[in-house]
Design goal:
By secondary structure, the protein is mainly α. 65% of the residues lie in helices and 4% in strands. The N terminus is likely disordered.
Length: 251
């Protein structure tokens, strides 16, 4: 979700050193101010390691992923284009994403602005940094595909799903930390089980970073979920929506 490294030559990157103490300090700040999204990117940058490079290499190993890497389109530009989003009919992934955004007032560029506060090189043209931007920009799409809402528990579950998909330790750290915070707030919420199920769903699903998202948006949502092997989040859904909305943590 953020630039994972600094340049040391035009054609290669130095992997980001893991900094668990920096991640812990950032999570504590996030726990004090749940709306401080910058801390999420601090955590991701501290723990990303080689995950972006490995993900990009995996992308190149598939036909569709290689095509996407060649095109190197910026998803954020399309996701923030109302005319582009308007083309998707009722029941499609694109329509569900459009409703998701409109309800919450989210924008891809807004998330990018938060990332820039932590990683000034987030807009660099390096292909691995482009892949990192892609992972950042699909976050809300993965909310739609998985069925997790943007309450605290839903966010914890989506990042657990994302760890299974990307191997980025920052996602695991946020998911487990958020689950622990939720458990302290309300021991009746099965946060750990929900997060573990989300991780398992991510492991069993097809690999999502290399998809053609424009083609995916045109598909019926339920058809797309079945094709991608994304199963229902039953533990999360068993928690009453009112209870989920009452949780204060927003990781």
């Amino acid at each position: 979700m953020t630039a994972a490294a600094d340049f040391d030559a035009p054609d290669r990157m130095t992997p980001q050193r893991l900094e668990p103490l920096k991640a812990l300090r950032a999570f504590r700040r996030l726990a004090r101010n749940k709306e401080d999204t910058t801390q999420v990117f601090e955590i991701m940058r501290a723990l990303s390691g080689r995950s972006a490079s490995r993900g990009y290499d995996r992308m190149l190993g598939t036909w569709e992923g290689g095509r996407q890497a060649f095109l190197r389109e910026e998803l954020a530009h399309k996701l923030d284009d109302p005319a582009w989003l308007a083309q998707f009919g009722p029941g499609t992934v694109g329509a569900a994403y459009r409703a998701f955004r409109e309800t919450r007032g989210f924008t891809a560029e807004g998330l990018a602005d938060e990332a820039r506060k932590v990683a000034p090189m987030v807009d660099a043209p390096h292909p691995v940094i482009w892949f990192s931007r892609r992972i950042r920009d699909v976050h809300d799409i993965w909310h739609v595909l998985t069925g997790y809402e943007t309450d605290a528990l839903g966010e914890a579950c989506v990042v657990a799903f994302s760890h299974a998909q990307t191997g980025n330790l920052g996602f695991a750290f946020i998911g487990l930390g958020a689950a622990a915070e939720i458990r302290r707030e309300d021991r009746g919420v099965p946060a750990r089980r929900a997060v573990l199920q989300a991780w398992r769903i991510g492991r069993r699903a097809r690999w999502l970073p290399g998809l053609d998202y424009e083609a995916l948006f045109a598909q019926p949502l339920e058809t797309a979920r079945a094709r991608l092997g994304i199963t229902p989040p039953t533990v999360y859904e068993a928690v009453p929506a009112e209870t989920r909305r009452g949780l204060k943590l927003r990781a």
